[in-house]
Amino acid sequence: MTDTPKSHGRLSISASLQPRDLMVDRPRLRGAWTARIITLFPEAFPGILGLSLTGRALDQGLWALETIDLRPFGEGKHRNVDDSPAGGGAGMVLRPDVMGAALDQAAIGTPNDRGRWPVVYLSPRGRPFRQDMAHRLAAADGITLICGRFEGLDERVIEEYGVEEVSLGDFVLTGGEIAAQALIDASVRLIPRVLGNQASTEEESFSEGLLEHPQYTRPAVWKGRAVPDILLSGHHAKIATWRRAMAERLTKERRPDLWRAYCERRGRDPDGDAEL
């Protein structure tokens, strides 16, 4: 897990914005995709990102993780990072001066072009996070993620820094750290050499706008349920046709929104194909 690759490029040496203990024995390849995370809980990282394929890629320097603790940027004796919402109301709002200072720190050494280095705020009111967005983020040089807390972030920060709001779904979390880990995981796995099998990303759910077809393995019969005969036939063309049909059926049944978009791109009637 900690072996350094022998021929993936030269290692770069740079100042880190994250706690030193997260950097122990982890090289960083020059130009490696980097996630900078502004959070009140830097100890939450790398979390699940430090395990399995993403963890191995992190250890190998294929991508890098930097946390920026928001608390030191706070105001006053108690390093306050929030204040009451203007106009009244329950809860607290992250201050613009505090978050702005943290974003200025996070911007050091990054390109100004938001296409090359997006700044993302995990927010329930943001655009839904989808696979095409994961591809876009993975193709950038890196990303800065704001993990919100309390009632949210002062709107002026979002406007001033060109922050992109992204949501994982129509639900509310206590903070953005879990959402940030999910977004990073979905993006990092698309970086070349992280998975080790590029075909896996090409065949999985959402790669063509469809849910993935059912998967089976040995034994051929389990609790009276058999693997479909077509998958044991060895006829690859027929297997591919079956898988496509199953993917379309599942998508039409479970995600009508995806099915309509899929049909629209192909000039098909989403209410047709009754056999699906």
Automatic annotation (TrEMBL):
S-adenosyl-L-methionine binds at residues 148, 168-173. It catalyses: guanosine(37) in tRNA + S-adenosyl-L-methionine = N(1)-methylguanosine(37) in tRNA + S-adenosyl-L-homocysteine + H(+). Keywords: Cytoplasm, Methyltransferase, S-adenosyl-L-methionine, Transferase, tRNA processing. GO terms for molecular function: tRNA (guanine(37)-N1)-methyltransferase activity. Its EC number is 2.1.1.228. The keyword Chaperone does not apply. GO terms for cellular component: cytosol. The keyword DNA repair does not apply. One of its GO terms (biological process) is tRNA N1-guanine methylation. It is an enzyme of class 2 (transferase). Its main location: cytoplasm. SUPFAM superfamilies: alpha/beta knot. It is found in: Cytoplasm. HAMAP family: TrmD (MF_00605). Specifically methylates guanosine-37 in various tRNAs. Homodimer. Belongs to the RNA methyltransferase TrmD family. This is tRNA (guanine-N(1)-)-methyltransferase. It comes from Rhodovulum euryhalinum.
